[in-house]
Amino acid sequence: MSKATLDHVAQRAGVSMKTVSRVVNREPNVRESTKTKVEAAIAELHYRPNPSARNLASRHAHIIGLIYDDPSAYEVPSAGYVVNMQQGALHACRKSHYELLIHPCDYRKGNIDGEIEEIIEYARPAGIVLAAPLSDMPRIVRAIEKTSTPMIRLSPGKPRANELCVVTNDREISAEMTRYLISLGHSKIAYITGHRSHKAVANRFEGYKDAMRQSGLKVSERLVVAGDNSFGSGEIAAEKLLSRKQRPTAIFAANDDMAAGVIRVANRFGIEVPTELSIAGFDDVALARLVFPNLTTIRQPLSAMAELAAAMLIEGRNGKKDKKTIQIVPSSLKIRESTGPAPD
Amino acid sequence: MSKATLDHVAQRAGVSMKTVSRVVNREPNVRESTKTKVEAAIAELHYRPNPSARNLASRHAHIIGLIYDDPSAYEVPSAGYVVNMQQGALHACRKSHYELLIHPCDYRKGNIDGEIEEIIEYARPAGIVLAAPLSDMPRIVRAIEKTSTPMIRLSPGKPRANELCVVTNDREISAEMTRYLISLGHSKIAYITGHRSHKAVANRFEGYKDAMRQSGLKVSERLVVAGDNSFGSGEIAAEKLLSRKQRPTAIFAANDDMAAGVIRVANRFGIEVPTELSIAGFDDVALARLVFPNLTTIRQPLSAMAELAAAMLIEGRNGKKDKKTIQIVPSSLKIRESTGPAPD
DNA sequence: GTGAAAGCGCTAACAC
DNA sequence: GTGTTAGCGCTTTCAC
User: Fold this and answer.
1) Which of A49, A231, A303 comes nearest B290 by C-beta?
2) H or E segment at A270?
3) Segments forming the whole domain that contains residue A32
4) Distance (Å, rounded) from C-alpha B298 to C-alpha B277?
């Protein structure tokens, strides 16, 4: 029950409110000795600044909004994805005594843009972190822009000029995974693409093609099958690929859910993984360590990306402006048990 | 950019600030005609109340805190669990223009109680929803009580007298699942218990025993194996149960992760599910529909529970006090493919 | 380096 | 039914 106010602290320390305020907010121009005195008073009175008073007086809420696709609606993206982003954003917010306003939303709903505008207008966050795949949806991006709240998009397909955004190296790391498969002796490496609307996932496909070409392997149409990021679409794609006479010796899926679907089909078909077929995914969701064999995949630094985005928004408010608009946080390969040397 | 204030609206509508305030807050004692006038002015000026000003003047933050075990730390509980609770709490908060403050925390950390106190003292939420299994940890419960913030515990093992809490019918629904297995002709029904510290999970075991006894089946020690809610512990328990000559024809695990572990072991042992072995879980996490065969399980109304808890806290602030202290939101059976008639 | 005064936009407590 | 007044606990601005 912290009832102490700035005023109480000021009286106790024998200084003015403004001086206490300076100490609390780490502003310069306070003599070391007064600072110590004030800090002692704060501790004695167990003073805690009142965020509402602070927000009101400073004319802006210390709030960062995090907007993402609602995982409880369709379980895509997976809940783990969301929880990781929250953790990162939360971390950045706590450091600066900001609050995190989370807003899961179902983009399939009719008036989703109106809903987002409402939320922003009511809560008045200092900035918005917009997660993929929403970060590529013009309707949603426009709704946020309409409120003229600073925004940082996570993993947009194509960053725009002068826009702050945080991305990972989807393309490069996918090329690296492909090269890893090639180094194991695979040459018939199939690829299962992700959902059309998720642009960052499309970059993964580019990386696969880069590596294939660089290694002198041709990207046959027969090696590429379309999926939609769901487990089921991974199964269907796998059935198509694995029922051919000339089947691939490795399958790289644009995300883990689809890769898990491939594993299931391989089991059903009696194809041994990884001796007869190598399988790789992307995302490193919890599922990757629950399937058998454990999935080789790519770990996205979701937490770090969200933390960086939130921190940038908070610093932006404090006047610091980065030159770099596109921040890249690299993903990394997680080699597990589902990949191995090519047969023969 | 909503810059309109109560004052502007009042002038525009030709009434006093207080009257506008009444309309905004749906207070009584406003003539229908003035109300219409005020609402028109609000719409014209695109007025949005400033939450900070409101919080400051009313001397309390319109914030509900949701505290839960951090899923990104150990993936237990699963992220889906957390996301569902968030959704429910968020729903209740939005309705009343409250904010939701989420606080995932790792209870294994040393000063977790201090951390929780800090967060509460800074944010000053009007109430706290404390999720299981934290709701059974005395250190955490005490830390929250120390701040004298109203709290509602979700699924506490044993509710205390006069305490508000929200629970589900763990025991009864577990008995029902057991009866369902018995009705399929099973009599050697094994049970895998959950983590010791999670009291609500212990109630599930009681339900299993209730049903066994009621049906005249004895609860042999050989049928009960201890797990710790993890996938791995389910595997170990299954190995123990299924390597016996007289093996059970059904296994009921206290949660889905362990049940999924049982399925994996059954596959490895070449035991067909559900023809040779029926398997049931509890929770209905996403995994339940990803394993093969799909898991028969019990769906907990997590979202509804969290929503109810948040709504109770908000109403509590508004003076309404429920007589009922223990609110029960029932779980339900989800019969899928992993259970079937007993062999022979 | 430090302080005094004004006011952020609302609600509470009354008066009418 | 409606209006008036006095703050809530801070930051801002500017004076010293």
Assistant:
1) A231
2) none
3) 6-48
4) 18
Quote the pLDDT of residue B229: 87
pTM of structure: 0.91
- CATH number, position B42: 1.10.260.40
pLDDT tens digit sequence for A63-111: 999 999 988 765 655 788 899 999 999 999 999 999 999 999 999 888 9
- State the pLDDT at residue B316: 84
Q: Please count the other Cβ atoms lying within 10 Å of the Cβ belonging to residue A216.
A: 8
CA-nearest residue to A119 within chain B is B94
pLDDT on residue B173: 98
- Indicate if B197 and B316 belong to the same structural domain: no
Tell me the backbone φ, ψ of residue A64, rounded to 5 degrees. -115, 130
Residue A265 · residue A240 · CB < 8 Å: no
Bin B82: left if φ > 0, else alpha if -120 < ψ < 50, else beta.
alpha
Contact partners, residue A131, CB within 8 Å, separation at least 6: A66, A67, A68, A69, A82, A85, A154, A155, A306
The predicted model gives A206-212 an average pLDDT of 97
Q: Provide the CA A18 to C1' D11 distance, Å, integer.
A: 9
Instruction: Express each pLDDT in B237-287 by its tens digit.
Output: 999 999 999 999 999 999 998 999 999 999 889 999 999 999 999 988 877
Q: State which residue has its Cα closest to the C1' atom of C12.
A: B58
Query: pLDDT-based confidence at A321, cuts 50/70/90?
Result: low
Q: How far is CA A292 from CA A62, A282, B233, B339, in A?
A: 45, 16, 16, 22
Best probe of the A interface among B5, B46, B70, B83, by most A CBs < 10 A, is B83
A185 occurs within a structural domain? yes
| A206 and A129 both lie in a single domain | no
Same domain, A109 and A150: yes
